[in-house]
Amino acid sequence: MERVAIIGASMTPFGQRDAWVRELLAEAGAAALDDAGIDGDDLDHLYVSNMASGEFEGQTGVPNALAHDLAAQPAYTARIDQTSSSGGAGVYAAWQSVASGASDLTMLVGGEKMTHRTTAEATDVIASLTHPVEYKQGVTLPSFAGLTARLYLDEYDAPRESLGKVAVKNHANGVDNPHAQFRKEVDLDTVLDSPIVADPLRLYDFCPITDGSAALVFCPESVAAEYVPEDEYAVVSGIGGATDTHVVHERADPTTMGGVVDSSDIAYEMAGIGPDDIDVAELHDMFTILEFLQSEDLGFFEKGEGWKAVEEGVTDRDGDLPINTSGGLKSKGHPLGASGVAQVYEIFEQVTGNAGPRQVEADTGLACNVGGFGNCVTTTILEGNQ
Amino acid sequence: MSDNDATDDANAGDGSEETAEPTFEAAEYADGTVTYPPHTVSPNGAERVGTVDLREYEGHVLTWTTSTATPPGVREPNTLAIVEFELGDEYDGPAVRALGQIAGREDDSGETFDVDIGDRVEPVYAGELREPGAGIREPESQAWDGFRFRPVE
């Protein structure tokens, strides 16, 4: 199997954008092509990670539209929808296309346009991924987070404040990310006094609704240096995808995300490393509680101990294991199909030494992208070449 | 434990016009496990052999939340709980749970019952849990009646 390198990356500003999904995808795609020093017609494969452009905007067929906009014909195209983990699934598809030898040059572009919808409408589009017996009860992804947060706090005797500290940390990190939706610090009192959304979680425990796009260019490692200097590419040393139950209440332990455990086991084995070898990580903090669950299920901390790591500053930018140096979904924003791509973009920037004021010491980084409430997960490990 | 033969309709008993009194149907499988909702096979891949009516059982609250940002057609606020049913000493399969709304008080206050982790609850039928057609899902694609939970007196 061919080892796969990432030779170009880009992301648009995340936030409330005037551009529609086609324009967002083209903006990120053109920038990634430029970053890799190639043209659209150099691509063999072009993938688009997107959850719901038809539902949000009435625009379907986005991969072909993007291929035309970037003059990438006759590249093979496909849309990758795995709900909130569409981006991670797209990374998997792009990696697979090169690793298998089917493509010598693949671009992945993830994007979503959401902010023209009301919060209630956007919430319902996302909640449509649930089983009929869940949907008819009016469940939302935020309410799954509230249910799980209450159980976690009760089971592991964690203080409510520890969840708020995730929001404080990630907002502080987002200040230095020029692409982030929110570049403003928040203090713990503001988080804990914000309106209740899904008790015990409050407004600042949740990511915003976001427009945006991000892109990555993949090729065989053996030819990566033909496109960019050796210290400017990274290698996908491990990647794994896995699922958990569709119906959330059927999980043996609702505070464990089996898809995170299984996908990371696969990625670690492929990379030949373990959780102790990870220098920096981007986790899917769509809700603050998810950062605890993933940091434990990825093996960074013992079960029920993730909250202590946040309290002790271990996951701060200057801590032993910086988590969400980009600001995470919490501060950077969460344009569904783009998020998993943007997570890998941040790790790419970190392991190639291009993260600017967010830079940490990192040779190896991990991104964990979660769909639904842990229903589908992709874990990706990048190694720098510095 | 089975009440009747398996059916292919995961929503059977959820307001079926042929059923005088709606049932809270879980599936039983050849390996002895029970799931709600019913699936094609058990978590271990065993075939369905019957159904279990969860109306006959009480449960306890595993966790709960009150959602204040609800989608179109959903009551606001919406208090939800994951309830774990107590199927008796003879059952040793995976926990059987359901996600459900907490029922409203019967005192015209418009409020739902208070619940906490560990509280004992029982199912109570509701003809419409959310307004069909108000949200994105096709109204004819699923049932909209079902069961809420209220504290056991």
From TrEMBL, chain A:
Q: Which UniProt keywords apply?
A: Isoprene biosynthesis
Q: Keyword Signal: yes or no?
A: no
Q: Which InterPro entries match?
A: Thiolase, Thiolase-like, Thiolase_C_2, Thiolase_N
Query: Could you tell me which residue ranges the Thiolase C-terminal domain spans?
Result: 240-383
This protein's record includes keyword Cell membrane: no
Task: Please list the residue ranges annotated as the Thiolase N-terminal domain.
Answer: 4-222
The record lists the membrane-crossing segments as none
Q: Which GO terms describe its molecular function?
A: acyltransferase activity, transferring groups other than amino-acyl groups
* Protein's recorded name: 3-ketoacyl-CoA thiolase
GO process terms (BP): isoprenoid biosynthetic process
Q: Name one Pfam family in it.
A: Thiolase_C_1
> Which CDD domains did the record assign?
SCP-x_thiolase (cd00829)
Task: Spell out the Gene3D superfamilies in the cross-references.
Answer: 3.40.47.10
From TrEMBL, chain B:
What segments bear the compositional bias annotation Low complexity? 21-30
Ranges for region Disordered? 1-46, 130-153
Q: Which InterPro entries match?
A: NA-bd_OB-fold (IPR012340)
Entry protein name: DUF35 domain-containing protein
